[in-house]
Amino acid sequence: MSGTLFVLAGGQAAGKSTLCPELVRLAAGPIVLDMDELLDDGVLLGHRIGPDLPPDIGADYDRLWTRVVDLVRRAGHPVIFLCPTPRASVLAAGEPFGSSAHWARLACDRAVREQRLLARGWSAAEVAEFLEDPGHAEIEALIPREFRTDRSSPTEIARDVLAWVDETQSGVKGVRQNG
What keywords are annotated for this sequence in UniProt (predicted)? Predict the structure, then answer.
């Protein structure tokens, strides 16, 4: 038996790392994994994991996480997986987790993301370039379920996410649906 997979995708500064500890604290049953948890200050096996990562290494990193998630799921545990938002072309192709995953986005207003990125030491030019995301509408169409990280506390958002997980699992009876 394979556990149900819930993917929470969000760009940098969308709130994944802030939400993760609250999900871990409040989750009773689902295993919570954050894609950044294998990194040591943004580095894995000598490679900086980020937007300018060579495609072959990025694909290897994605495959590694797919395997980790599958290892946990095969024990029958539901998994909540926090990760960067994949490109629209990857999602449209049914990757990386196929049609059995239930997807949601973590989102916040542009000004909030800008403040968060500036607080991380990014320059105004880097922030402006990063926030110019032409694929945003496509992502919204592919992942319509959204949790706003700029309008509630991490605890409230975690409770909302866990309610979505519970609601979705109660509707999953042998056949998994995109959610």
Answer: Kinase, Transferase
* Cβ 112 vs Cβ 150: under 8 Å: yes
Instruction: Tell me which DSSP letter residue 102 carries.
Output: E
pTM value surpassing 0.70: yes
CATH architecture of the domain formed by 5-170: 3-Layer(aba) Sandwich (3.40)
Q: Is the dihedral of CA 152, 158, 162, 164 positive or negative?
A: positive
Q: Helix, strand, or coil here: 140?
A: helix
Instruction: Please state, rounded to an integer, the average pLDDT across all residues of the chain.
Output: 82
Q: Which of 145, 116, 136, 150 is nearest to 7 (CA)?
A: 145
- Average confidence (pLDDT) per 10 residues, the chain, 179 residues: 86 89 93 79 64 65 81 89 82 74 91 90 86 76 91 95 92 43
Return the pLDDT at 122: 85
Token output for 60: 């290897």
Q: What is the distance between the alpha carbons of residues 107 and 150, in angstroms, rounded to a whole number?
A: 8
Can you give the pLDDT at residue 175? 35
